[in-house]
Amino acid sequence: MFKAINKYFTEKLTPLVRYLHYSILFLVLLQILLSNFIEINDDGVIGQSIIEYYSTWAHIGVGLSLVALALVFAIVELSKHGYLYFYPYLSGDFSQLKSDLRKLKSLEVPDASPRGLAAVIQGLGLGALLLVALSGAIWFVLWSYDLALADDVKEIHELLTGLIEAYVIGHGGMGLIHIFIVFKEQKTANK
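and the corresponding C-alpha cells:
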C-alpha cells in the first residue's frame, strides 16, 4: 500500500507540494503525539518532569516550524490554484460540489477536480492547519511575555486542535480509500 500511496503522490503532486505534504503530515502527527505529554499549568509554568519539560518544548519548536511550513504550503497552493479552487462557495459557486455530492450519493467516488469536494476539503484542512498553527504561535508570544490573555488563547488553540485531528482522520482515511480504488482500477486495467 505504501508503494501505491507514493506512486499516487508522485503522479498527482509536484515534488515541492509532495514534500510539504509529507513534512506537514509527519509534524502534525508528531504534535498530536507530543500533546499527550505536555504540561503547562494555569500560571504558565511548564511541568518539571523530564517528559513534560522536553515534550512541551519539542511541541513548541515543532509548532513554530509548522507555522512556517503551513504559510509556505498555503502560498504555494493558493498561487498555483487560486482561492476559488479551494473555496468556490465564497463566490456562490456550488456546481462542482453538487455534482460530486450526487456521485457520492450514488456510491461513486468523484474524481478530484477544481472547486469539487476534494478541493473544498483540502481548503478546509489548509484553513484548519493555519488556524491551529497561528493560534499556537500567538499563544507562545503571549505566554513568553507573561500576558494574561495567554491562557485564553491556549484554550482556543487546544479547541482548534480538534479540527486538525478530525481532518487527519477524515482526509487521511478518504485519501487512502481513494488511492486504494485507483490502485485497484489500475491493477485491473493492466491484467
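(Above: one complete record from the training split.) The helical segments are 2-12, 15-34, 50-81, 83-86, 95-105, 117-144, 150-189.
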